[in-house]
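Data availability (excerpt). The following record was deposited with the supplementary files.
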Amino acid sequence: KADDYFSIGQTNVLYQREGKCYFYETFQRGIYEVGEDDLKGYVMEGDVFPAEAVPAAGLPMAGFEPVIVNKERVTKEIKVVRAVARLDIELENASGSAMTVQSINLGAFVADQAYLFGQGNEAMPEGTAYSRKAWEVSGSIADGKKETYSYYLYPSVARADAYTLGLTTNVKTYDPQPLMEGSTYLSRMPRNTVYKIRAIVDVDAITF
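Predicted structure:
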């Protein structure tokens, strides 16, 4: 009997064979049997993210929609979203001289895992660990010029004071500053979201 393919995504396939459901995910390079309650609990983990560029396998995308499977051919449209978040950090050099960026220092909000299929409240898998990340970059920014750096990472729900950003250059390490949404401290980074951060770097500090 031919397999019944429920979903064929950019990086994963969900299908049925002989009455059992299986999930193939390229980042894990394995095939997993899943049940009705297991699908939403599938966890992404490992060294694929965070990443400075889209991994060779692409970005994980997922969607979930109940469907009755029988002998009749059924076409079902399933909306999928990107299962990761992205930071776009624009650095403007206002220091008065050329600046060489060595690292962008992210606070303790970088998660080591996340659910592939988003839970309604962006719950995180049990045992999720959050850590700081010194994101190594290279390149010189002339005085008065700007440069944008993009970074992909798992969604996160860390403590409010964890969402900070600092900077290390050839002449100074700038203290981490809190990331804000309007007048509110950032306290989560949902999936399928792009955060555009504009940072002005002068001699003494960085401001957003």
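Summary of structural features: The longest strand covers residues 99-111.
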